[in-house]
Write a structure and sequence with these properties.
The protein has eight helices and 21 strands. By secondary structure, the protein is of the alpha/beta class. 46% of the residues are buried.
Length: 342
């Protein structure tokens, strides 16, 4: 265990955790909502530190990030636990595990130094904190991110966005990119399905943009829950109001966890979402978990093909640094280890 960051001590050995937007007030010997942070005699500890449940080399496109070092590899890391309870979670076997029952469920001991070394050994250009919610293993991610940055690696959060401003400001100097799940544009849906709230997620996306972190957004489209034209239009409109160059990934749902009685997202619904993104003025809209459409990057200036994708593979690449090979105009993103174009 390691003493946690971002908490304050209260009376009678109670603590207030302000790592995520739940702002848990935790009694002595109890856990926070995440199930990995425990109050022990008035001090808050994280059980997730250094305990990797998953560590893999992934293509960056799997995060998904399409405008951040495309074609590169990212060393991907997770511990158990989450601060959401999404009924459709596709990594529920690890995200919904907890340290509350006293079992050692954290996986292998893997130090920050070992992670960075493995990333370098496997020719990764970045480290991704992913699969489960990186906010809940924040101390582990932060230490790793600092070491990764020192070695010239980029750092990526794949996150539900349910973190506090204090947490984001603390990791900001080391965080280069994020894919944020914007699951709904409806407060009741966030409460009912995720045990969360909408506004903190919107606030995170806004703040990430203000801080200069490269942001892409994913919406898993669940039939009957967030697939209405109005909701898709609202999500697209929100993103466009921040920056029309935010890539929006609309992803196909498959039945899982508590949502096994739901159907797969029809391709027509994904195409509707793509159209709503275009209608809102978004420049880059992609379809995920589906083949045959919605995966390629087109130059917004000359309309020629920039990147052709098949699954996680790049079949064609027509960028020179951060510019279209044909018209030589800048394309939004980070296509080398340099800075972002807006």
């Amino acid at each position: 265990m390691k003493e946690a960051l971002l908490y304050e001590k209260l009376a009678e050995k109670t603590v207030h955790c302000y790592l995520c937007a739940h702002h848990c007030h935790i009694l002595n010997q109890h856990f926070g909502f995440c199930g990995v942070r425990q109050n022990i005699d008035g001090l808050l500890y994280t059980h997730a530190y250094g305990k990797a449940i998953a560590a893999h080399v992934d293509p960056i496109e799997k995060k998904p990030l399409y405008h951040f070092l495309p074609g590169s590899k990212s060393f991907s890391l997770a511990t158990i636990g989450c601060n959401f309870r999404c009924g459709f979670c596709q990594n529920w076997e690890i995200s919904q595990k907890s340290f509350r029952d006293g079992q050692i469920l954290g996986g292998a001991e893997l130090s920050a130094e070992m992670i960075v070394a493995k990333a370098q050994d496997t020719q990764c250009q970045s480290v991704s904190y992913t699969y489960t919610e990186p906010t809940i293993f924040f101390e582990y991610a932060l230490e790793t991110a600092k070491l990764a940055k020192d070695k010239g690696l980029k750092n990526i959060f794949v996150t539900n966005g349910y973190m506090t401003k204090e947490a984001l400001l603390l990791i900001k100097p080391y965080l280069d990119a994020a894919n944020v799940d914007l699951k709904f544009f409806n407060e009741n849906s966030y409460k009912k399905i995720c045990a969360g709230s909408l506004e903190p997620v919107l606030a995170t996306i806004r703040l990430m943009k203000e801080l200069g972190i490269w942001v892409e957004v994913t919406t898993l489209i669940v039939p009957g829950e967030n697939d209405s034209t109005q909701e898709l239009s609202s999500i697209a409109g929100f993103l466009a109001s921040l920056d029309k160059n935010i890539p929006w990934h609309v992803s196909r749902f498959h039945p899982d966890y508590h949502f096994t009685d739901y159907s797969f997202t029809p391709e027509g619904t994904l195409k509707k979402a793509l159209n709503e993104g275009k209608r809102a003025g978004l420049t880059y809209i992609y379809a995920g978990n589906v083949s045959g459409f919605g995966n390629d990057t087109i130059c917004p200036h000359c309309k020629k093909l920039l990147i052709k994708r098949q699954g996680f593979d790049l079949l064609e690449y027509n960028l020179k640094a951060d510019r279209c090979k044909f018209c030589l105009k800048e394309v939004a993103g980070i296509f080398s280890k340099g800075e972002a174009n807006g």
